[in-house]
Amino acid sequence: MIASRDKYAIGTQARLTMELMLNLGVRVSDARQIGQPHIQNGVLTDYQPQKGRTTGGHLINVPIHADLARVIAGTKVLGTSTFLVTTEGNMYAAKYLGQEMREWCDAASCQNAAPTASASCA
After folding, report:
1. pLDDT at residue 117, as a whole number
2. How many CB atoms lie within 10 A of CB 92?
3. pTM score of the predicted model
4. How many whole angstroms from its chain centre is CA 93?
């Protein structure tokens, strides 16, 4: 993560994506869907990860870490319901965001990184 923080300034989609995954512990499929409507009083509130939606999985509540709050505040958000959007203003497809993550990690010279919360440029 240090490599990606050095490479990507606050205000970039790469930095916001990596901070969302790292600080919330969510998958790419979830990071792409999270936005301001999901945050209440500094907490990701009652969010149901995509993987558990069809089986009635548990809702999660995760405090927003100061690092993530700083990145969100410093990033121009174009989406009305999600933080992460394409240059056209649309929500990323999970596969496309995963490909972007791979490119961002490669560009930051992250070793053994994959587009998952636990391996994002650790």
Report:
1. 41
2. 23
3. 0.83
4. 13
